[in-house]
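Ligand: flavin-adenine dinucleotide. Inputs:
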Amino acid sequence: MTISVWQRTKAHEVIRCDVAIIGAGITGLSAAIECEAKGLTCAIVEASWAGSKASGRNAGFLIRGAASNYALSCDMYGRDTTRELWQWTEDNIRELRALGLESTPGFRSLPSCVGAMAQDELDELVRSRDMMHEDGLECELVDSSSGIDDALWRSGKVLGGLLNPNDAVCSPYELVGLLSAQLSATPLFEDAEVYRIEVDDSGCVVRTRGIEVRASRVLVCTNAYGAGLCPSLVEVVKPNRGQMCAVRPANPDDAELLCSYYLNHGSEYIRRGEPGEVIMGGARTYHADEEATKSDDVTSTVQNHLEEFIRELVTTDYVVTARWSGTMGFTRDALPVIGAVDPAQCPGDGRVWFCGGLTGHGMSMGYKTGRHAIRVMIEGERTMFGLDRFGSGAG
Ligand SMILES: Cc1cc2nc3c(=O)[nH]c(=O)nc-3n(C[C@H](O)[C@H](O)[C@H](O)COP(=O)(O)OP(=O)(O)OC[C@H]3O[C@@H](n4cnc5c(N)ncnc54)[C@H](O)[C@@H]3O)c2cc1C
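Predicted complex:
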């Protein structure tokens, strides 16, 4: 957002704190939880409301791992980093359970299954299984003879899958509520879009039309919208829309999926929803140019594609109960970024930081990553997500 000189109002309220956090999604809320744990004063400013963007609109998979399967990730990031990433996501799920996520109504312990619909992907899953076992990670290769009796396996379209036994699904919006409820001393200002961050000798000033936050440090957690406040992120974190739909099969048995499925290299994902409902998302990869947008609309091309998958994998007899979309922040290597950035108006001098770009895995990584970002920024904790790996953005 830009603001004309006429629209600037004198801030009604000035808040002073150690850390200003911009964005109340999973990342920003988790960062605020860590600030409180460290005894740092903090305030969150949010353009809409907590969980209004990707964090409240996603599929709710708490799946171990990263965007690619284990074997491909090892090829891409190296074996040590991959093992560390898988451990990171396992810890993230465990820490969310410890926080009380299991008692939210939408939570369900459910194995996730990375399913292959083509032989080359199945070969990668076999390789992944072997490497994961060597690295001490529990998983199991399954197929239609493994006794998982649900619509997906009955469809005969899935050749095989790699089962992660300790995964779960939840309502992402309930997760946002759970994270918000952890905050006891941090004010959350909603409907407060930040239009500018300024840095001067006295510290950082985060400007919205109604309030002004003055802080020693700023952590920008606006994910796909990062480049709006920090232009140096434009090539680092790119917006990509993800579309979803929910359907109610005529036969309730078809909705009883026994795993949450992540198919075609994660391009499509499908899970059970409310009783009698199936939730499906993806098909973005077939419409990549159209989906490189921040718009929260749905399109008939992608929605039709999703319904084709429903008919192929679940049932031809169903009614659609909801359609929606959300915007993810993608990085080139599909890993989050944490680092100092320059805000739009002036050099940040290392006091303005960004954490985001969780690339379709914020549920699986966001809580741990948001908390970690504060420790990286304040204490210099080692990170595998440093922004400097892209050679740009450092303030
Ligand atoms: C359709 C879809 C399905 C997904 N499925 C899964 C899944 O199953 N599992 C998984 O792990 N991940 C999934 N993801 C990814 C996950 O949702 C994201 O990685 C995660 O929510 C990112 O959280 P965040 O807090 O970084 O960003 P967001 O939730 O996008 O939060 C950013 C916040 O910043 C605010 N903001 C932006 N600009 C400003 C400004 N100028 N001033 C103030 N506030 C501002 C926004 O309003 C927003 O609330 C999915 C995403 C989508 C879209």
